[in-house]
Amino acid sequence: MRRRGQGLVEFALALPLLLFLAMAIADFGRILLIYAELGGGVREALRYAIVQAPTSSMTKAQWSSFCYEALLDRLKATLVLTPKQALVPQSTYFVYFESFRYDTGQFQPAVECASVDKKFVLKREDRVVIDARVTVSPVTPMIQALLPQVTIRYRAGRTLFPPDGVYFGPSQLPSP
Q1: Proportion of the chain above pLDDT 70, given as a percent
Q2: Are 138 and 144 in contact (CB under 8 A)?
Q3: How far apart are alpha carbons 30 and 135 in whole angstroms?
Q4: d(C-alpha 49, C-alpha 167), whole Å
Q5: Residue 105 and which of 7, 8, 22, 131 are 20 to 30 A apart at CA?
Q6: Please, which residues bridge with residue 97 across strands?
């Protein structure tokens, strides 16, 4: 009994499965990298917001410029794989402010940057929240047939601290 070519036939049967597995791993890795990149961009925009946060009253146009131009430009500057045109202000990219109430010790409901009025002023202990959503399609056609689009959402917030930093009271370390 001759078995010539049996290895070739087995390889031909296993090759599509191995290629599909390799493509799925590559697409999953790309989506994971886009998620990490979007997270880094949102955190960078929040760092900029905390450092450059206006503490005086501004017009609605100035708030909109701060939220949807300065912060968005900062976020887009960090993106490489993420489609930058997918970040559309007030559609897939939002900036919220949560005011802190000292009497209750809790944050008030979030106010979107586009709806703040002239009287709105950021104070210390207030929180800036950025919510970004990106829809990504897998590169591989076989994976696209199974999973046409993946929506990645990243939401993060930072609290405004006083310029002199955080004070925790007297040191609790024992004296030498």
Answers
A1: 89
A2: yes
A3: 13
A4: 21
A5: 131
A6: 111, 128
Closest-CA residue to 87 (of 48, 117, 45): 45
CB-CB contact of 103 with 125 (8 Å): no
Q: Is the dihedral of CA 31, 153, 115, 157 positive or negative?
A: negative
Cα 134 to Cα 41, 155, 159, 171, distances in angstroms: 12, 12, 25, 45
DSSP state of 109: P
Quick: pLDDT tens for 142-157. Answer: 888 888 999 999 999 9
Please name the residue that has the structure tokens 């979030």: 110
Task: Output phi, psi for 64, to 5 deg.
Answer: -65, -40
Query: Is pLDDT above 90 for 166?
Result: no
Count CB-CB contacts under 10 A for residue 57: 12
Three-class SS state of 153: strand
Asked whether the beta carbons of 99 and 56 are under 8 A apart, the reply is no
Query: Could you tell me the CA-to-CA distances from 17 to 11, 21, 145 in Å, in that order?
Result: 10, 6, 16
Asked if 136 and 31 touch (Cβ cutoff 8 Å), the reply is yes
Using an 8 Å Cβ cutoff, are 79 and 105 in contact? no
